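ugh ok fine here u go
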Amino acid sequence: MNIKLTEIRSDLTDEATQRLENAYKEAERLRELDIKDEPRDEQGRTAQWYEDMGIDPSNYLETKENIPESVEVKFGEEDYYSYNVDILINSTEYFTMTQEEDFTEIEFLNGKIIMVEESIEEIEDLLNPKKEEGISKELKVGLVILGFLLIFSFFLGFLVG
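structure:
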């Protein structure tokens, strides 16, 4: 049996995505500089070019020593937006739940973690539907059908007899 829950997902905003793309481009540019033996500036000009122009090249060139090993992009809460997606979860699959202030965190046996809008109580109600006190719903329906059949057979016997 599957239960339907509302997963809360988040993605980077357009601005944050652009920052990430720019960081990738910068990392690629720095890798290209690192490959070359001769120090170059952002436009690829060498020390010889600066000397030919009568400019001291030391202020403009990026050498292997001052190229960072990695480009780091940090994201804050404002860099994400949230949206909801309806999902189906197999109720026989093992998972644990943790109630947070605004969502429930579900961790599956395989290590995957998702956030859903529903509370633990709502999820447990979906997993274990409560039976009505006293007579079950199925039995009530059966009794109603049996009652109609008895009334119908009584009138049929009255009409025939």
